[in-house]
Amino acid sequence: MLRKSALLLLFIFLTLGACTSKKRVVSKKKRPTKERVVVDNRPKVTPNETAAETPKTEVITPKPNASYAEVVQAYIDSYSEIAQEEMLQYGIPASITLAQGILESGAGRGELTSKANNHFGIKCHGWQGDKVYHDDDEAQECFRKYNDPKYSFRDHSLFLTQRSRYQDLFKLKKDDYKGWAKGLKKAGYATDPKYPDKLIGIVERYDLDKFDDAVLGKKGSPKKDVDAKIATHEVAKGDTLYNIARRYNITVETLKEYNGLTDTTISIGQELYLHPVKNQ
């Protein structure tokens, strides 16, 4: 009888132990489920996000009843500094950039410029960004669209510097706007036989070559020189040609060309030109 009682107690003890063990297993299964719903508060970075937003270009709007000369002057006042910065970095005369912009955008009033910030009529040509469709030589052709006019000016610089057919232009003196106007036509930028004369006429009518003189630091130039800090970069620890080129939105090959480099070797403290060396 005592043996039966002992066996009964052992059975009850084992049964209770099994129940307790099962409860613990269930509890362990629930814990990972709770961990999965913890909110991740780490900052998310999208591919198009930048460290700092650059300010929007301040565009001067002419009065509704303004004359064409006043409209052009407002355009010059809005974009002359950008054209000078592009000249510093890429060697394209500011006078030519402004004259092309005035001619091709209708001094900022053209339909393509209004709806796409496209000042130079650059078509898609494999463009991966936003696009608009506009009647030109053919109906509903594809054109590049920019978030800000300054990106149109930068794309214009890249368009000329990255195509071999325009390379002879960069052998001209930086203040030779007449040579540039004729060279653009010769290289096939425009089909209009009067294109060079139109550009030269705009430059001379609105005295746009004064912006070239300012960039080149000529004495007596009426406009103060653009901040020279953007013209060079001093190599710091951790710099590579690749990250410097990305920082200033130019290619590694262009950076090497500007500085006469045959490979990607650079040294701390070395000063790199971000534009072609000036022709005197």
Write structural notes for this entry.
The protein is extended, with a radius of gyration of 32 Å. Residues 25-52 and 223-230 have low confidence and may be disordered. The chain has helices spanning 2-36, 68-90, 94-105, 111-116, 149-161, 177-186, 195-205, 209-216, 241-247, 252-259, and strands spanning 131-134, 141-144, 232-234, 271-273. By secondary structure, the protein is mainly alpha-helical. β1 and β2 (141-144) form a beta hairpin.
Q: How much of the sequence is in beta strands?
A: 5-15%
Q: H/E order of the elements?
A: HHHHEEHHHHEHHE
The largest beta-sheet arranges its strands as 1-2
Cα-based radius of gyration, to the nearest Å: 32 Å
Keywords:
280 residues, mainly alpha, two-stranded antiparallel sheet, 10 helices, 4 strands, extended
Write the layout of secondary structure elements.
Layout: H1 2-36, H2 68-90, H3 94-105, H4 111-116, E1 131-134, E2 141-144, H5 149-161, H6 177-186, H7 195-205, H8 209-216, E3 232-234, H9 241-247, H10 252-259, E4 271-273
Antiparallel strand pairs: 1-2, 3-4
Helix pairs in contact: 2-3, 2-5, 2-8, 3-7, 6-7
Brief account:
With about 280 residues, the protein is mostly helical.
